[in-house]
């Protein structure tokens, strides 16, 4: 099935954006804007965030963190802290009974630093006390003697520097070779690009509660996005079997992937087991900035070759990613960056080198669109350079090179999924441009910098820029993507049990819609998540829409068969001749008509099913292999006003066309796209966790700027291409990551168009947005 949907129509499938009037039937099934079940609790303040949890006999935790980016630990003296009134226990590396190291991708990160600290904010000790202030004072009273070491903070120097970790400084190197490495084009352009350290900046900082169990195990209540992986990490560190550790997922206060700090959970569990009391920790915003992973800062060098008509001949690229002190998910992030280094374009020949290295900078890890965002900013900058060199319009050179279904990635993998890249680009190009602001006092708000800015209206230039982005769906390189779900039906109520965490991406709402669509039951509940349920995997790459949604659909269909088989047998027909609509079961000939409740007749039906997409394979020694399950694409046109004297930038409009496969919840889809564009806007203009020789500067929301409602532009979804991916459940594709990837490149392109400057650094500095020649 192939089709396109105008954005305005796509997000208003029901009246008033999904709001049901009293005399209307209930919202039901796929394709409607079913509101989230947790919306009332969030608006009323009763949503169960971990920071609000309480238990009888509660103790409070605090963590001592390193003030240095690199130092040798000569001694740790906990006596003064342990003797303070109200302090129950102080733990260091000596008190970790199991594996001393943990990590999401590579287990190379210590629970508590032992011989050396490798980044600013690394945990050294933890305290449990009867009052939070006592815990913090006790942590501050721990005396640590350091020998300061020279921090390696430039990833380019990591290759020759002494080893910063027993595993060495190089985490992964991927040399990609595709086609003829000696090929050259008639035209060649070069560029150097730098991408900053974006923080996930969750709405709520990390928090958790650990409760000891009578069997010597522990239960940890926290906003985990991958509870089974966290359980296994914790059990290994605690020296316990996994079934003696339970992770209970609380409300997640915003997540853009694996946002939580596993080390916090490990410290909590150890404190609870040691004291025999419940222990709670609520991180400060500073601790949150220091502890969790950030987007990889990246240095990219590019050389594009093209013929005289603008057709790409070869892409050469060098990609250097700063992983910080530990590996985390850097290996898979690098794989995405190298694989997508040429973008959604047909490139006959490619030579790409990618490295991820350890430094003494803050840790890097999974942040939405990892790897793909960094290279998108670079290859789109190169396409603008080529357009200028050849005298072509930026959109025209892109149209001459866009990929389509059947083309090859530089990894040698064939693009088998729908790839309507040209259609997306044409949609944003043909969308009407926003009007210029009128010369009125009110229009001062529309100037870059606002009415208090020092700029002059005559110095404002408007630029229009284009960008095309792509992301992969699910895990890659042989990752076993599997999820399990159970659907139960009793009376007129259905319940879904699946360990897929609702992070704000809308899985809980989707699960309800799937069951409604399949079983015709309006009242569907999604149970809370804990590790007593079978695993569903991590909540990233929109994988729960595909894998967990597929498991829910299979389980619901199995229940549907159980429900319909007795009726089909009674009337001498197959179940395929029966349909369920709005709670009623009818046959094709109208002979049978009954309600679902009547057919159940008091019975409880249930089924459990798994979903596992087709396998992938690791990239080989030449960067070749079928590493990805599927791809999603986006085109964005950015219109920006730039004060070419001061360098102030105001993004006026972002026009978005996206390849979505199928719209499952129109209102939810719009929200995900708008959120993704806004997050990308932050990466383009303001978000950068700054460091000085490895020391984080201003780790708070005063020093780290985020886009607000005043910064958000008009986001117009001009087209949604609904060309279903036949291998995906429901044919749907992920929608939130690809606009994050594409929007920073589009903003940079618009600033280039307005100023004539190359703009090779994100976030864009004011001096980079000042025109080279200003004529007044």
Task: Report a brief summary of the structure.
With 776 residues, the protein is an alpha+beta fold. It is 25% helix and 26% strand. It is built from 17 helices and 32 strands.
Describe the structure.
Pfam families: Ald_Xan_dh_C (PF01315), MoCoBD_1 (PF02738), MoCoBD_2 (PF20256). Residues 44-150 form the Aldehyde oxidase/xanthine dehydrogenase a/b hammerhead domain. The protein is an alpha+beta fold and 776 residues long. Helices cover 25% and strands 26% of the residues. It has 17 helices and 32 strands. The strands form 8 sheets. A 7-stranded mixed beta sheet has the order 4-8-2-15-12-13-14. Strands 10-18-17-16-11-32 form a 6-stranded mixed beta sheet. The relative contact order is 0.14.
């Amino acid at each position: 099935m192939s089709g396109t949907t105008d954005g305005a129509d796509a997000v208003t499938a029901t009246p008033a954006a999904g709001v049901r009037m009293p005399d209307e039937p209930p919202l039901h099934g796929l394709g409607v804007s079913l509101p989230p079940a947790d919306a009332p609790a969030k608006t009323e303040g009763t949503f169960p965030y971990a920071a609000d949890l309480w238990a009888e006999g509660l103790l409070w935790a605090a963590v001592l963190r390193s003030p240095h980016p690199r130092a040798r630990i000569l001694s740790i003296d906990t006596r003064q802290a342990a003797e303070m009134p109200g302090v129950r226990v102080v733990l260091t590396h000596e008190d970790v009974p199991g594996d001393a190291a943990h990590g999401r991708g590579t287990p190379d990160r210590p629970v508590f630093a032992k011989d050396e600290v490798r980044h600013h904010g690394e945990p050294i000790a933890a305290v449990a006390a009867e009052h939070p202030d006592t815990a913090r004072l006790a942590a501050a009273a721990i005396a640590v003697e350091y020998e300061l070491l020279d921090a390696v903070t430039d990833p380019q120097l990591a290759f020759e520097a002494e080893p910063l970790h027993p595993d060495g400084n190089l985490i992964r190197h991927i040399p990609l070779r595709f086609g003829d490495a000696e090929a050259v084009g008639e035209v060649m352009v070069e560029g150097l690009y730098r991408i900053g350290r974006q923080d996930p900046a969750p709405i709520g900082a990390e928090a958790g509660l650990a409760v000891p169990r009578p069997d010597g195990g522990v239960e940890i209540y926290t906003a985990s996005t991958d509870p089974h992986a966290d359980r296994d990490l914790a059990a290994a560190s605690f020296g316990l079997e996994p079934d003696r550790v339970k992770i209970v997922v609380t409300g997640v206060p915003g997540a853009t992937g694996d946002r939580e700090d596993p080390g916090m959970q490990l410290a909590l569990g150890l404190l609870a087991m040691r004291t025999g009391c419940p222990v709670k920790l609520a991180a400060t915003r500073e601790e949150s900035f220091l502890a969790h992973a950030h987007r990889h800062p990246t240095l990219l060098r590019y050389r594009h070759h093209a013929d005289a008509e603008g057709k790409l001949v070869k892409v050469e690229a060098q990609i250097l990613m700063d992983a910080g002190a530990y590996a985390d998910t850097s290996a898979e992030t690098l794989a995405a960056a190298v694989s997508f280094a040429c973008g959604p374009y047909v490139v006959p020949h490619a030579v790409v080198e990618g490295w991820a290295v350890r430094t003494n900078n803050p840790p890097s890890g999974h942040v939405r669109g990892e790897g793909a965002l960094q290279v998108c900013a670079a290859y789109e900058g190169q396409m603008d350079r080529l357009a200028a060199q050849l005298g072509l319009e930026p959109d025209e050179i892109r149209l001459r090179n866009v990929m389509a279904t059947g083309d090859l990635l530089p990894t040698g993998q064939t693009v088998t999924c729908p790839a309507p890249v040209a259609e997306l680009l044409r949609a944003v190009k043909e969308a009407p441009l926003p009007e210029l602001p009128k010369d009125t006092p009110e229009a001062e708000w529309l100037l870059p910098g606002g009415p208090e800015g020092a700029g002059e209206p005559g110095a404002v230039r408007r630029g229009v820029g284009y960008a095309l982005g792509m992301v992969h769906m699910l895990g890659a390189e042989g990752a076993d993507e599997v999820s399990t779900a159970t659907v139960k039906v009793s009376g007129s109520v259905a319940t879904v049990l699946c360990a897929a965490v609702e992070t704000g991406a809308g899985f809980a709402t989707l699960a309800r819609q799937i069951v409604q669509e399949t079983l015709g039951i309006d009242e569907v509940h999604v149970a809370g998540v804990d590790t007593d349920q079978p695993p569903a995997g991590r909540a990233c790459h929109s994988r729960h829409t595909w894998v967990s949604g597929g498991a829910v659909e299979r389980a619901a269909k199995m229940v549907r068969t159980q429900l319909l088989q007795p009726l089909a047998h009674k009337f001498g027909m197959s179940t395929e001749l029966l349909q369920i609509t709005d709670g009623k079961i009818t046959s094709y000939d109208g002979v049978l008509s009954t309600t679902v409740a009547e057919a159940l007749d008091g019975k409880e039906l249930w089924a459990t099913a798994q979903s596992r997409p087709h396998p992938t394979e690791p990239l080989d020694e030449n960067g070749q292999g079928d590493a990805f399950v599927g791809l999603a694409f986006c085109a964005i046109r950015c219109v920006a006003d730039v004060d070419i004297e001061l360098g102030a930038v105001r993004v006026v409009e972002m026009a978005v066309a996206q390849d979505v496969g199928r719209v499952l919840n129109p209102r939810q889809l719009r929200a995900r796209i708008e959120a993704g564009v806004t997050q990308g806007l932050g990466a383009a203009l303001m978000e950068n966790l700054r460091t000085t020789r490895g020391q984080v500067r201003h780790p708070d929301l005063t020093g780290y700027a985020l886009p607000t409602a005043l910064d958000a532009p008009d986001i117009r979804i001009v087209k949604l291409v609904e060309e279903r991916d036949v291998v995906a459940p429901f044919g749907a594709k992920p929608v939130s990551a690809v606009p994050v990837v594409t929007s920073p490149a589009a903003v940079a392109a618009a600033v280039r168009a307005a100023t004539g400057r190359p703009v090779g650094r994100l976030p864009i500095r004011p001096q980079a947005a000042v025109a080279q020649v200003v004529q007044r």
